[in-house]
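Below is how a single chain appears once it has passed through the pipeline. First comes the sequence as given, then the structure the pipeline wrote out for it. We keep one example in the README because the format questions we get most often are answered faster by looking than by reading.
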Amino acid sequence: MNLQLNRRQFLSALALAAAGSVTVPLWAQSAGTRRLRAGAAVSNLTLPLGASNGGVIARGGPATDIHDDLFARCLVLDDGRTRVALAVCDVRMIARSVIDAAKQLAQDATGISADNIMISATHTHSAPGVIGLDNVELDRWYLDFFARRVADGIRRAVNRLAPAKIGWGAGAQPQHVFNRRWHMKPGSIPPNPFGLSTDRVQMNPPAGSQNLIEPAGPVDPQVGVISVQHDDGRPMALWANYGLHYVGGGVANHVSADYYGMFAERVQQLLNADRLDPAFVAMMSNGTSGDVNNTDFRKPRPKKAPWTRMREVAFDLANEALCVRRKIEHRDSADLAVRTAELQLGVRRPDAERLDWARRTLSESPKGKRLGRPQIYAEEALHLAKFPATVPVKLQVIRIGELALAAVPCEVFAETGLAIKQASPFKPTFVVELANGYNGYLPTARQHELGGYETWPARSAYLEPEADTQIRATIQKLLTAVARGS
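Resulting structure:
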């Protein structure tokens, strides 16, 4: 719920606090003293045809067509003392080096501190992972293009800064999120890529299988919404957050922003905001969805025409977001604050036995044939052997009035996101995954024990089993610090 004090209420609250009768929350101590300004813009990120359209370990082919363009959708907020920028990018994941380059360009051009910029990936699988794209000149060109275009989007949002009103709220759409890791009947889980039958859960089991027992974890159906208006009430931006991995169901090697982009277009349509000047910007960030997708595994999955399933999800989420927006009481001030931390977390590097297996597996593979899972994970073992013992992991918390955003550079499991929200002093708290870098899947220690795809060591899943515990504790410290103003 949004709280708003008029002048008399505000002064009365301060008087009571001075008399020792009530504790005024930090956000209220300066409420109404600084006028909020905001600006929003988009920047086209669409890759050229022929560029790589895969993930960090996925063998995606070159882009052959563009179904819909990719964008960096940017929102800048300024409370008169602190300025923050949010950029949601229609790609699979983004390397820390690319994000740091984009932040530096934006900082140099606008003065916004790099620490005050959150850049996140949506995780559409119909777009490239902007990481490790250094095999051909076209891909190397795209890395530089991407960083500059994200910075351009932030710069353009700054150019549009104007008096604004803001509010937030949350709804729910439980019918589109399902845990994709399942406990199965004994003997029904295939061996993992290393030839071991140690997994106790299976990712994406056959839909409708008689071997299903129960999901291995929860989901988070919350739809988080931040709404920004111009001073005269015209819509300026809508930022949303939902914990769904991606939807898919497009055409192979055709580029698309998936349901995230369709959501943005649908919100604009429903608000009749497609001819505004400056342009209205909607965006959907990814919540905690490392173990969540759009398949109800208890039922057979019917085939649908390409792009249909994305559109269904996008339209339902747009309707819910606007339902939430209609209940929001927008206000013209909201204190901003940012806290960041960087952890050094351990890497699960392969031991000598795993490396021997990897070399043997690759040497025995038929030449010229597409690699199977064992060969892919053999290559990944050789990659991980070159990793340092620890890697830096950047964490960030942004406070907007009584709202908090927590950013984690991993594919975060839903149970972790729910725990962060539950422990947070801010209600609501929205958790953004794949933000400010890419450090792979983040299973909990218990999920590591269960095994499954998200735990198999690779560049997509390499952090130590206790990484989730350390990240959760650090986010909590950041939330507490930003609540206290310390």
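The first strand starts at residue 37 and ends at 44.

See the next section for the split statistics.
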